[in-house]
Protein: Right handed beta helix domain-containing protein
Amino acid sequence: MLRSQQAQHFHRRYLMHPLPLSRAPRAVLLALVGLIVLPACSDDGDDRPDAGQPDSGMPADAGSDAGSDAGSDAGTPDAGGPMAWPQEFSCEGKEQTELTFNPGQEQDLQDAVNALDDCTTINLGAGTFQFDNAITIRANGITVKGAGKGTQGEATGGESSTVLDFTHAAANTNGFDVVSKLFTVSDLAVWNAKKDGLRIESSTNVNIQRIRTEWAQENQQSNGKYGIYPVKSTYVLVEDSEAYNAADAGIYVGQTQHTIVRRNVAKKNVAGIEIENTKYAHVTNNVAEDNTTGLVVFDLPGNPIRGTDIYVAHNTITGNNRPNFASVEASSSTVSQVPAGTGTFILASRRVEMERNTWGNNNTVDIAILSGLAIEPDPVQWAAGFFNYPSQDISIHDNTFTGGSGRMVDNGTPDPERRPLGALVGAVYQYGAAAHGVTGVEHVLWDGVDPAPRDESLANPINICFTRNTLPEGAQASVVDFDLQAVGGHLSAGPTPENAAAAWGETRRYAQGAEPYNCSGFTPALTIR
Structure:
């Protein structure tokens, strides 16, 4: 089809049914767009940050692109067992108890947990435990360990696996519900939890090792929201674990200081791995595939923890094209409106380094970098986190982009009402393909919102660096400044080819190695220990 004919096809398909973007001022436009960019967040009133939880020790944001790439050899945690972090509680010198339970002794286990002494180890035998309520732990120095987590789809424990089945538990209960200092859970599976599989809140020195959380059916709105869910905690390790079929996020670490998330697998969730309002996170050697969105790093407004210093390395984030199955009514946030095919997005985050990861075959985009004003346009609402709405200092280097991404936004089924940003991006690139032969969204899409108001004299005002990455053969542009405000303004002005052309004209594309995104990272280096 000739390009003029393609442009006519675009006009008929998209502009005759314009996106629901009004002529409203910038704040309203951003609020509308924000309906889809927010992933999973804390879902209950008791998840809101504690007023007494201080945000301490935060280094100042680095400014421009001076300095070297951070993180490669700066405080990288050892690949071995639990980190040697400071401890608020120790069992040394205290009486220690060891209890053992096997399938069929569920009531005995519940009775023991309800009267649990500090410094107790609970051994769970191989096989299947059936529970009608959550396992609630409110003691310190507790270890729970089974015989093994089994394999994906294994609903019944075997000779070398322990499955805790919550299929018949009371509605709206978690699998584990933990508040503890020095808590370790390992080598078991949590099956069909009604709400969150493994919920750990307001805890310190948390070690989650070789855990599997799973729901039996794929793509069900009625599945529990979160698989592995440590929140409002300090010194958290999540390693060698798996999460499947969560209707919100498979592995989530939120409102937390100091975390390591390594060697995990997150598949078939709405969101694979999420790092939210967290300081000092080390996310390495994970696999996030076949989710709606693979990996998310973001801050939310109203939280005193200003997320910073996030190191993302050696992860595989590919093929995250699962249709979004989060409940529109019951979702904890607007995760139900995230477009399928989002590899990674970064929102209201700073000092994020990504190296030696692999992205590919994510239908919408490999990486999106967004402003917090897209979800909350009133800067005052961000005061608790020291006005942490801007994204700043994002270094993406020495990664591999295998190709196949950005070619079918939202799996080719954009929904302007439920997923407006996906529809907007899809419409713009449909026009770009028709009129300019641009076949897909670039590897990195920046919304162009920060700083606010934007200083047009600054070509790269938030210091996004994109260097030394391995790109598909024949790759041209790799980064796009989408200029969301200007694009939305044109498309909301009326369903005409001229407005589509004007919207496309507001977007700017850059090849790797070209200014202004050929910067060298940020300083000081990441300090994640």
